[in-house]
């Protein structure tokens, strides 16, 4: 076990990459932002633990109270992105979700706000699984920078919406 190696040196050795490649990844804050946003999202919007079957109920419960424009661009981005079969398979890694498949099979403009929220949250959920449990190497995160940023922005909107609805995060004594 390394005792004197820096984290970036250790990670570079582990992945077989140069320290400069590892520093590019570590200097980018998107993984940290995703982790923090996910923690807040999972806690605030799903009472601490998200499971794929819970997403439909969340979308049904939340869609009526969130403005349809707030997440439209993010949902449209992912709807368009996952029309590509290879990208979709990469996202899902063999997992099946019939509702998601059905939504991707319909024109975006025909989706309800609940459908769009389901699609978006399901994609964020899959990114979370792929980042923290998947077989993707950490070094591949930079290839998905735009998608991860969209996920983070979507979670910011959803956490803020949940906090406005049920404030619990601000310290009353402050």
UniProtKB/TrEMBL annotation:
<protein>
    <recommendedName>
        <fullName>Apea-like HEPN domain-containing protein</fullName>
    </recommendedName>
</protein>
């Amino acid at each position: 076990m390394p005792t004197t190696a820096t984290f970036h040196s250790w990670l570079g050795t582990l992945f077989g990459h140069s320290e400069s490649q590892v520093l590019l990844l570590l200097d980018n804050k998107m993984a940290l932002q995703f982790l923090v946003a996910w923690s807040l999202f999972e806690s605030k919007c799903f009472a601490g633990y998200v499971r794929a079957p819970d997403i439909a109920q969340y979308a049904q419960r939340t869609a009526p109270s969130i403005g349809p424009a707030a997440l439209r661009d993010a949902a449209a981005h992912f709807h368009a992105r996952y029309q590509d079969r290879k990208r979709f398979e990469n996202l899902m890694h063999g997992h099946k979700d019939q509702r998601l498949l059905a939504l991707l099979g319909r024109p975006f403009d025909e989706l309800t706000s609940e459908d769009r929220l389901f699609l978006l949250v399901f994609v964020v959920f899959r990114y979370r699984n792929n980042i923290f449990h998947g077989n993707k190497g950490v070094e591949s995160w930079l290839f998905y920078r735009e998608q991860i940023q969209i996920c983070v922005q979507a979670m910011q909107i959803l956490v803020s919406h949940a906090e406005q609805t049920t404030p619990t995060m601000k310290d009353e004594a402050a």
